[in-house]
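seq as requested:
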Amino acid sequence: QVQLVESGGGLVQAGGSLRLSCAASGRTFSSYNMGWFLRRAPGKERDFVAAISASGGLTNYADSVKGRFTISRDNTKNTVYLQMNSLKPEDTAVYYCAIGRLRAGVSDAVTSYDLWGQGTQVTVSS
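struct tokens:
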């Protein structure tokens, strides 16, 4: 059974850093693009944060996080990371990782991803 498990969330002051991890199992991880999304409140849509290609050679970022967040992956560990620096209160959200549909590219669309983790809470205090 395929499973994604996020970790690394927590409470941090504005200007601080966190690194999120997403460990995958049950699928050939290195064959799939991966993405990070956030949801700021229950019932709201998930917003795109970043995506990375299967090889790690291509990345895509939301404008709001460019220059502050970095997505990376280690295919030997079946893990994708999101390094978040210079955090702002508006970054507060539940962060989800997701596996991309084949041939969808490093997409910013929710519909380009077909399996999601349970999420990890990030809270940035002012």
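The first strand starts at residue 3 and ends at 7.
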